[in-house]
User: Fold these one by one.
Assistant:
Number 1:
Amino acid sequence: MSTSASTPAPAAEEPVIAQRGPYKVQLLAGYRYAWCACGMSKWQPFCDGSHTGSKAGLKPKVFTQDKDQVAFLCGCKRSAKFPFCDGTHNKL
Ligand code: FES
């Protein structure tokens, strides 16, 4: 039986909380959007390429809409229904 302490596994790197609430945005039908998943973009809630080279390896979620609509995109980067807000920010 070994008495040496084992090294704990490193914790998964979490995204940065860009904002503790959603961003209200107007989305246009047919456009490709890239929602920032890492939280480091200066152009929230959309990707500006800041994730490149980060250790987290978080990549943007690319999506389109079938129709023009106002949407609430996640700013805390922890929504299970990303890119859309699901209320998870209320538990942070
Ligand atoms: S802003 Fe992330 S769940 Fe609402």
Number 2:
Amino acid sequence: MAKPALLERLKRGPLLADGAMGTMLHQSGLRLGRCFDELNLTDPHLVASIHRQYLNAGAEIIETNTFSANDFKLQQFNLQRQTIEINEAGVEIVRGVIEASGRQDVYIAGSVGPLGTWIAPIGRVTEERAYAAFRKQIATLIYSGVDALLLETFSDLNEVSIAIRAARDVRPAVPVIANFSFTRDDCTVLGDSATRVAQHLASAGVNVLGVNCSIGPAQLLRIAGVMQQVAPDLPLAILPNAGFPEQVRGRMVYPASPDYFGEYALAFAELGARIIGGCCGTTPAHIQAMREAPGRRSPPACHAGERAAPRRTERPNALRATDRARMHVARRPIRDHG
Ligand SMILES: [Zn+2]
């Protein structure tokens, strides 16, 4: 039996999304700074193996490995002529993994990140060029068969509006999930509050609004609560990173453990979030812990900030940062992510 359309399914209860792709690719030995999206063409089996791990961990939404697959970011690697192929392959890899699993209940979310350059008037890229880049990537993802578009790690209201317009122009009814990232002061890098972001996304006509990456689960629970009050009729998505990464002996370490994510999964569900999952620094173990969370009793432990693991007796989750979340808080375009 065919699965219900994503937005119908969300009315029945929360869906579990996957975690980081870039973190896992880096753990497999790939160096930072390379183009991870290109792997859809050059090493699809590696990308598929990570999707499969998230599927086995219980994820019901798998994101395509296309976060940076737009003309602007691919141009940095001289790959802009392969934008369409990279996005097509990204969808095909996820579809292949889902079909091989026999699962009927898994959705493909086409990941779309910011362009990696500021748009006028903040930057020099014109709105027309930005629209053309988004439309090219988004049209490819839609025509390749994604169940929804996942606009993630955005911080510019104008930029996300352009992406949403491109999506609606290609297919008016495509489900659009739009997730913003926030800095330590609970504002975007451009200084917009959660209230303003939620108002903007609601008026822009997104189907699901939410938060991702940022400084970890506790912060995003707080921000998502604000967004929900502003837009109570819209489903909410929460996909935090594994806390704020710190340099430890020359490498980046994410502090939040899978158990910590499991505890917060309960809090996200209690808030009413309809899509929960992970971002930078999260692994299949985090997603599995979130999957198993409904059976747990313990409420999430509150702690100041997300810099430290909630239980100091646990070893920090020593993952190398692939995408340097500090890029998400700097006034610079985000290049790598996932
Ligand atoms: Zn992230």
Number 3:
Amino acid sequence: MIRKTITAITNYFTDRPEPEEIFLPLAKLPKEPKVEKPILSQYFKSQLVEDRAKYLNLQVYEIMWEMIAWIVEELKLIPVITETVTTGEQDEALGRVSQSHEDGRAFDMRTRDWTPEQRHKFMAFFTAKYSDKAAISKASGKPTLIVYHDVGHGEHFHIQFDRKFTVIKKETA
Ligand SMILES: [Zn+2]
């Protein structure tokens, strides 16, 4: 019985095909399909704006995507985020007074292809929903989530959150 088992094991090993038959040599493996660089997400003006979006405060980031989904669904528009997180130098060059982009608690959205009705619908819906998270306007002293303005680069929405959403930045060497 034991001998029979040993013979069976021996046969198992000797009957095994040579490794070449089991493993496909690397050279014969199908080549990785050549993937083109992914097309820039249609919701962002540039790759830089999209890359920097991940430095937004996480809640702000989530609300940004909620807004994008809502606009697509409710307004049948393709929103374009034109600014997310910026650097201090960039703000200075553009004459920006608010720190909100640098703080990671604001983003901008292009509105030139929106109708006034679409703008009002969007502003009414999200102002009501997130007034408790909105930045306080310097001018009015009131919570103001969405500012519709043109600071010389075309009309757009500046969507800003309270200072408590500021992303803490760590100096890196
Ligand atoms: Zn802005």
Number 4:
Amino acid sequence: MIMKYRDKPAKIAGYEAMLKRLAPNHPKRTMISDALYNHVAGIGGEERVDDALSYFEPDYPFLIIQDLQLPNRAQIDTLIITEDCVIILEIKNLGGQLRLRSNPSALDQTALNGQRRFFRSPVIQAETAKIKMESILKSFNCPLPVETAVVMAYSSQFIENVPPGATVWSADEVLIQLNRRNIHTRLLTPAQMEQLAQSLLSFDLEYQLFPLSTKYGIPLSDIEKGVFCPRCQLRKMERTGRRWECKFCNLYSKDAHLEAVDHWFMLCKSTINTNECKNFLGLTDLDAAKRVLKRKGLIEVGGRRNRTYHQ
Ligand SMILES: [Zn+2]
């Protein structure tokens, strides 16, 4: 049973919105575009593993949590809970020639065009997640041991120099490897497994990626305001009457600002008031801002004078 599905599209939309609204020479741009690159590259691999696991039907109970966020910046791509252990899958989707280096550990990638990049070692990432998971399980008095496997999206993605003791599978063999496992000792009942999953998910709920300005320490004044044209993307629209107009591609839109309000929540703050909305969208009066926020169907909090809106 899957307890939580991953929501990568929301993260990607957030990073894309930030890149759209940061100046080309902004110091945090590289960090944001690296995060976007990693998320986009990761998606293909995670989809392949999710697909493989959809055929996982062992004769014992199991729970799956996709994309679990734990305290202290620990993130797990896929977590499988069974009656006798917890399995962490660290999923990678990287082409080219891959080699693990040690002292210090890194994954050395030489792409087909010869370009070389270094990544955090997935073996070290999985081992670090294991240590953090073990300490969380201990705090819950949960007796389950933790196992890890690095999963490569395709069997052509071969890692050289894997240290002894580390497990690396390809997405194609995840199902076979998991089916080979037998339950040795039933340490938890199905009800206890579910309780454990719910406790782990409560960490996930506390984790907030948005607003990205807080996560990346970007002042709100660095985030470009305005409504972007949905057709030519990088041009700003102007308000003419109750419509938005792109002077560049002549597009008229009644609701182009709705995306900008989404950007506000992803990038700036978790709440918005009419004044912030007016400034961010470039509206001329507060009534227009109020209409926009009402139309967005947001939750209203507070009285007339200090009303804020939430998603
Ligand atoms: Zn346009």
